[in-house]
Amino acid sequence: MKRKAEIQFTATFIAEVNQTDAKWKKLIGDYFDPDGDGWGVDHKWAIESWAEEEVTAAVQHKLAPAMSFEMPHLTEGCNGQEKLLLLATSVDFDGIEFTDSL
């Protein structure tokens, strides 16, 4: 009798971006409304919105194919013929942390 097991893992990836305010405004484009309260007030919301939507989609697009592959199962008692199929199934935005650089 064969038995199938789906073993789930959680991994954390950090995307770091360090830009001047001018480059941030250009990078996030429409996520910042210049008619709003201004960059000093709105920049964190605008960057977080951009990251949650755009960066998450980009990471999913690049990561899913790269993280989906067969891997030989090489533990004690195995001859290397058994394979594990690894699939990247989802990427979830987990938040953002801001720091000011000099």
In short:
The chain has two helices and two strands, in the order H-H-E-E. It is mainly alpha-helical and 102 residues long.
- Assembly state here? single chain
Helical residue percent?
Answer: 25-40%
Contiguous uncertain segments of 5+ residues? none
- Lateral arrangement of strands in the main beta sheet: 1-2
Tell me the number of strands: 2
Estimate the strand proportion.
Answer: 5-15%
Distance between the termini: 63 Å
- Please tally the helical runs, counting DSSP H or I stretches of 4 or more residues: 2
Tell me, rounded to a whole number, the average pLDDT.
84
Largest sheet: 2 strands, antiparallel
Q: Radius of gyration from the CA trace? A: 20 Å
Category by helix and strand content: mainly alpha
> Tell me, what's the shape?
elongated
- Along the chain, the helix and strand elements come as HHEE
